[in-house]
Amino acid sequence: MQFSRGLLIDLSPLRTSPAFARMWIGSTLAGIGGQLTIVTVMLHVFELTGSTFAVSMIAVAGLLPMILAGLYGGMLADAFDRRRVALISATVAFLATALLAALTWTHAETIWWLYGLSMIIAAANSVGMATRTAIVPRLIPWSASRRHPR
C-alpha cells in the first residue's frame, strides 16, 4: 500500500525550529497536566459531595471563564509581548494548581475553593492557549518556495 506524502503529518517544523519543538513539548505536557488536574478535581468533588451534579458543575464553572479569557487572550497576545503573556498565564495556572494541592493536603478545601480555582485555571489556560497559537507563526520559518498541498 502506498501513501501520498500529503496524508502524513508534517514533522519538519519540529526538526527545523528548536524553539517550536520546545514550545510544542511544553504545550503538550501542560495540556496533559491540565486534563489530569480537571479529572482530579472532579473526582475530589465527587468524594466530598457524592453528587454527580456537583461534579458536572466543575465543567460548567470553567466554561464561561474559558470562553471570555479565550476571546481576550488573543487581544492580550496582540497588545503585549506574547512571551510575557504566555509566561504570566502559565504562572497563574501553576499557582492556582499549587493552591489546590496545598488546600487538599491540609484538608482545608471546600467545594467553593474547588470551583473558584477551577475557574481561574480554565481562564489562565485559555489565555495561554490563545497566546501560544499567536506565537507559532513567528517560530516556524516560512519559505516562499514551499508549497502547501490543496
Automatic annotation (TrEMBL):
The lineage of its organism: Bacteria, Bacillati, Actinomycetota, Actinomycetes, Micrococcales. SUPFAM superfamilies: MFS general substrate transporter. It is a multi-pass membrane protein. Residues 19-150 form the Major facilitator superfamily (MFS) profile domain. This is Major facilitator superfamily (MFS) profile domain-containing protein. It holds the Pfam family MFS_3. It comes from Microbacterium suwonense. It is found in: Cell inner membrane. The keyword Cell membrane applies. The chain crosses the membrane at residues 21-46, 52-73, 85-105, 111-130. The keyword Transmembrane helix applies. Keywords: Cell membrane, Membrane, Transmembrane, Transmembrane helix, Transport. Its main location: membrane. Coiled coil: none annotated.
